[in-house]
Amino acid sequence: MAKTSENHQCMDDLKAERERCSFNKHEITTLLDGGEDKTKQRRKIEKVFLSDPEFLDATRPEYLSHEDRYANELRKACHMIRKFNEDEEIQQLVGQMDGIRTLMGSGLGVALTKDGNPLALHFIMFMPSIMGQGTVEQQGEWMGRAWSGEIIGTYAQTELGHGTFLRGLETTATYDPSTEEFVLHSPTITSTKWWPGGLGKTANYAVVMAQLYTRGRCHGPHPFIVQLRDEETHQSLPGVTLGEIGPRLGMNTNDNGFLCFSHHRIPRTHLLMKHSQVLQDGTYVRPANDKLAYGTMVFVRVAICFDTYRQLQRAVTIATRYSAIRRQSELVPGQPEPQILEYQTQQYKILPLIATVFGIHFAAQSVWQTYNDVTGSIHDGNLDLLPELHTLSCGLKALSSSDAANGVETCRLSCGGHGYLASSNLPRIYTTTTAAITYEGENTVMWLQVARYLIKSFREARQGHRLHHSVSYLTPRPASTHALQTNLSNAALVEAFRVAVSHLVGEVAARLQGQCDSGMVFEHAWNACSVQLARCAQVHIRYFTCEEFLSGVEKAEVSEATRGVLMRLCRLYLVFHIIGNQGDFLRSGALTPSDMTTLEEELATLLAALRPDAVSLVDSFDIHDRILDSTLGCWDGNVYERMFEEAKKSPLNQKDVPDAYYKYLRPLMKASL
Amino acid sequence: MAKTSENHQCMDDLKAERERCSFNKHEITTLLDGGEDKTKQRRKIEKVFLSDPEFLDATRPEYLSHEDRYANELRKACHMIRKFNEDEEIQQLVGQMDGIRTLMGSGLGVALTKDGNPLALHFIMFMPSIMGQGTVEQQGEWMGRAWSGEIIGTYAQTELGHGTFLRGLETTATYDPSTEEFVLHSPTITSTKWWPGGLGKTANYAVVMAQLYTRGRCHGPHPFIVQLRDEETHQSLPGVTLGEIGPRLGMNTNDNGFLCFSHHRIPRTHLLMKHSQVLQDGTYVRPANDKLAYGTMVFVRVAICFDTYRQLQRAVTIATRYSAIRRQSELVPGQPEPQILEYQTQQYKILPLIATVFGIHFAAQSVWQTYNDVTGSIHDGNLDLLPELHTLSCGLKALSSSDAANGVETCRLSCGGHGYLASSNLPRIYTTTTAAITYEGENTVMWLQVARYLIKSFREARQGHRLHHSVSYLTPRPASTHALQTNLSNAALVEAFRVAVSHLVGEVAARLQGQCDSGMVFEHAWNACSVQLARCAQVHIRYFTCEEFLSGVEKAEVSEATRGVLMRLCRLYLVFHIIGNQGDFLRSGALTPSDMTTLEEELATLLAALRPDAVSLVDSFDIHDRILDSTLGCWDGNVYERMFEEAKKSPLNQKDVPDAYYKYLRPLMKASL
Question: Which domain of life is it from (chains A, B) (predicted)?
Answer without folding.
Answer: Eukaryota
